[in-house]
Amino acid sequence: MPKISNNPISVADWGIINADMSIANNAMKKENDLAMLNMAGYHYAQAIEKTLKGLVKANNERSRCFGTHDLCFIVVETELCCPGFIQRFPYIAHNA
Predict the structure, then answer these.
(1) How far is the CA of 33 from the CAs of 16, 29, 37, in angstroms?
(2) What is the spatial distance between Cα 87 and Cα 15, in angstroms, rounded to a whole number?
């Protein structure tokens, strides 16, 4: 399996990612409320985006992905600084 990251995501970034996950997990508890399910989807997507940007930031300070929300672009940037990412996580790459 390819090595994904030489440097860890910062504690501050993990705190923000965990906040999104917590909000999404709580919203999922209201499974009969469409608005809450939409909110959960939004916050899960935010957590994925922030995780990928955290990987890029930890491994390539000069990335161009920080000002965008385009997950396709962010996945490509992740692959460039963490070779093997797409092979290891094809579901994320496919759904970006």
Answers:
(1) 25, 9, 6
(2) 27
Alpha-carbon dihedral angle through residues 34, 51, 77, 37, given to the nearest 10 degrees: 0
CA 83 to CA 95: how far, in whole Å? 19
Q: d(Cα 8, Cα 91) in Å, to the nearest integer?
A: 22
The distance of Cα 43 from the centroid of its chain, to the nearest Å, equals 10
Please check whether residue 30 is in contact with residue 36, taking contact to mean a CB–CB distance below 8 angstroms. Answer: yes
Give pLDDT tens digits for 7-59.
678 888 889 999 999 999 999 999 899 999 999 999 999 999 999 988 888 88
> In angstroms, rounded to a whole number, what is the distance separating the alpha carbons of residues 72 and 32?
31
Residue with tokens 């996580």: 89
